């Protein structure tokens, strides 16, 4: 579908992508983590897109198996949610991954 | 208003009350904390009440100054949200408060 294709190109063309909801604290935690690492992710606020937001959420589930937000991609690779991202960070694996995806 | 009165009696008549949203991870964290303390709060899932849910959320803001969920009351006293509750727990103040509210 075109929405599926647009998600695939979004995550391919942007080193860090966060599908988020603007009032969700778990989504905020992930966005704040990237901010503290001086990383500027592409953030897609699903609750601010009207009906397309829930369509996107369904497409993401089809593509990644994950329905929940936040939904994080680095270098086009599906990372997971808030806990997955924090875990990678705590293991020292997140920053190298971001550096590589940003072509550094 | 009647909704305001019903909130006041709910928090007066139940030792622990959590106004929550069923798909919100911060709300889950608070509910899980109480569960681990073998406490059974009265849980009100605002997203499962149709239009009354957002009315309740507005009433809670009027009564407590807090619009967000989770919104926690112990012994009729407004505690706050997830971080407030966790902070009280970490300081060893939560359990005595619950015990007192439960009339123990
Ligand atoms: N363990 C997951 C939890 C994700 C989760 O439960 N997200 C909630 C919001 S906090 C969700 O997407 N609920 C369904 C929805 O909002 O549509 C993580 O760390 O990201
Ligand atoms: N620091 C607060 C954060 C509360 C918060 O931002 N809650 C969000 C959901 S995680 C909220 O209520 N957003 C508005 C809404 O869902 O209506 C806490 O620890 O409880
Ligand atoms: S909606 Fe509350 S943590 Fe995501």
Describe this structure in words.
The structure is a homodimer of 104-residue chains. With 104 residues, the first copy, chain A, is an alpha+beta fold. Chain A is built from five helices and four strands; from the N terminus they run H-E-H-E-H-E-E-H-H. A four-stranded mixed sheet of chain A has the order 2-1-3-4, with helices on both faces. In chain A, a hairpin with a 2-residue loop joins strand 3 (71-74) and strand 4 (77-80). The model of chain A has no long low-confidence stretch (mean pLDDT 97). Chain A binds chain B through residues 23-26, 68, 82, and chain B through 23-26, 68, 82. One glutathione sits between chains A (21, 24, 26, 68-70, 81-83) and B (23-25).
Task: List strands and helices in order, with pairings.
2 copies of one chain form a homodimer.
Chain A: H1 2-13, E1 16-20, H2 25-36, E2 42-45, H3 51-64, E3 71-74, E4 77-80, H4 82-90, H5 94-101
The structure holds glutathione (2 copies) and FE2/S2 (inorganic) cluster (FES).
Family (chains A, B): Belongs to the glutaredoxin family. CPYC subfamily.
GO molecular function (chains A, B): glutathione disulfide oxidoreductase activity
GO cellular component, one term (chains A, B): cytoplasm
